[in-house]
Specification:
The protein has eight helices and five strands; from the N terminus they run E-H-E-H-H-E-H-H-E-H-H-E-H. The longest helix has 25 residues. By secondary structure, it is an alpha/beta fold.
Length: about 200
């Protein structure tokens, strides 16, 4: 099974992915956890560039994320799925659609099509979208912020709108959950939703 976690910066994606990994491994499942951009040598180099480099034009940004994703799928995700592992990914295609397609104004469908080509159509079986208010982002992030985390409240509101549109378009795949819940309560909701739909 392929599972992704999505949401605004500070929504708890990384924490919930780690909690689910621990729970599934305790049940004896073989789990591979990865993140985007990253997870490969190329992906980590692109991560450094897009999150901590200088100015990146919107289409350059979208293409860099797609390149990192293509490498991750070919090198890590697909081989793990073929071995029968459960793959948990902290961000995936939906991030690019929300951030670059909607918030950067490149077009939801154009960025989705670009990424579907990059991953040869591989989409998660289940995506957990952790929803928090855009104004909550400011409170949850520490002072050491990357290039995207430093964006305006308006930008984060556009990303949130993009995620919500994706959730309404793909309800069979995307499970939207309240990211303001207590950590363990949210973890139980993630686990319960995963098992319900397995």
């Amino acid at each position: 099974m392929f599972v992704s976690f999505e949401g605004l910066d500070g929504s708890g994606k990384s924490t919930q992915a780690e909690l689910l990994r621990s729970r599934l491994e305790a049940e004896g499942e073989n789990v591979l956890a990865t993140r985007e951009p990253g997870g490969t040598e190329l992906g980590e180099a692109i991560r450094e560039l897009v999150l901590h480099g200088g100015t990146v034009e919107p289409w350059a940004e979208a293409l860099l994320y797609a390149a990192a994703r293509a490498q991750l799928v070919a090198e890590v995700v697909r081989p793990a799925l073929e071995r029968g592992s459960t793959v948990l990914c902290d961000r995936y295609v939906d991030s690019s659609v929300a951030y670059q397609g909607v918030a950067r104004g490149l077009g939801l469908q154009r960025v989705l099509d670009l990424n579907l080509a990059a991953v040869d159509g591989l989409m998660p079986d289940r995506t957990f979208l952790l929803l928090i208010d855009a104004d909550e982002v400011e409170k949850r992030l520490d002072a050491d912020r990357d290039r995207l985390e430093r964006e305006s409240d308006r930008f984060h509101s556009c990303v949130d709108a993009g995620y919500r549109e994706l959730a309404s378009r793909f309800p069979e795949r995307i499970v939207a959950l309240d990211g303001s819940l207590a950590r363990d309560e949210l973890a139980d909701e993630v686990y319960g939703a995963l098992r319900e739909r397995s």
